[in-house]
Amino acid sequence: MQIILPGGCRIFYNGDDTYVQPGGGMEGRQADAVYRGNLTRLLEKVHAERGLDMAQYRPRYVERRLAARLHALNLHTYRQYATYLDEHPEEYAKLLDTLTINVTQFFRDPTVFELFRKDILPALLKEKAARHQRMIRVWSAGCATGQEPYSLAMSFLSAMEPQGSDFLLTILGTDLDRNALAVARRAEYDLGLIDQIPKVDQQKYLDVHNDHFKIKPAVTRLCKFDYLNLFEDKPIHVVDVIFCRNVFIYFNREEQERVLGVFWSALARGGYLVLGRSERIGPQVEHDYELISGRERIYRKPLKLL
Ligand SMILES: C[S@@+](CC[C@H](N)C(=O)[O-])C[C@H]1O[C@@H](n2cnc3c(N)ncnc32)[C@H](O)[C@@H]1O
Hints:
44% of the residues lie in helices and 21% in strands. Helix 5 (110-130) packs across helix 6. The protein is α/β, with parallel strands linked by helices. The radius of gyration is 23 Å and the shape is globular. Strands 9-5-4-10-11-13-12 form a 7-stranded mixed beta sheet. A 3-stranded antiparallel beta sheet has the order 1-2-3. A 3-stranded antiparallel beta sheet has the order 6-8-7. The protein folds into 2 domains: 2-100, Chemotaxis Receptor Methyltransferase Cher, domain 1, CATH 1.10.155; 110-300, Vaccinia Virus protein VP39 (Rossmann fold, 3-Layer(aba) Sandwich), CATH 3.40.50. The model is unreliable at 3-9 and 13-18 (pLDDT under 50).
């Protein structure tokens, strides 16, 4: 039953479960408290079940996306939706799609790339040079439309400049979305995205046209794109860096552990694993890896294994 309260609140009653669009007045404030409580419980549930910390997103954005799912399912309250998730676990994927689908950016989470460029890349190149190793292999797992691998390629090229180009660098972007991979291979993006790329990199690595820009061959020749389903296909081996960001949120705990196992075998000793800012790894993995930055979710496979 829907009731319009004085002050313009709309409330849906369902036992003690209440969904309200806050408007004002005493009833509005009480209903708002119930609404907030149910929302918090729902977010905690999604966090516990799928490891997605929606607190990382703007609250209004989360509420709008949830409202879209409730509307699609003809549900009125967060409690109804929590029950629906229990009865139809496949709904988690749709919720996560609604929240994250195809979202990617060049240099996404710039502080991750800043740390990567400032500390990690120089250290990695120095170690490689000291060991007379020329091959560097990087894997962007769940690369979507290619912005992440190209950001990595630009970062590596800038870092390698002062040392000469003695390294043989390969950046492999993989995904299970073939359409996204086709966009990645084209390496051509809407001009509206150009500000995501640092000015200095724009000048060096982009060819700008009227309404789009193209990534220069010096960058694209380093990048290869392949279809790979993290659950089904043979993993890549002996990589120095894995970026797998904003992909785990699709997976349940068990599947996350499985994929983390794949990454452990894929990484060379001393290799780096970079996860998404809202993703966390289990205590076992935290024990296995050295923590480089908790905030930026950067881990390192130890050089010497116990
Ligand atoms: C939100 S995008 C993240 C893109 C990029 N890593 C970033 O952080 O900007 C998630 C990508 O993971 C891909 N993905 C989801 N499940 C996958 C799986 N099992 N194997 C490989 N890729 C997967 C999706 O197709 C999508 O392109």
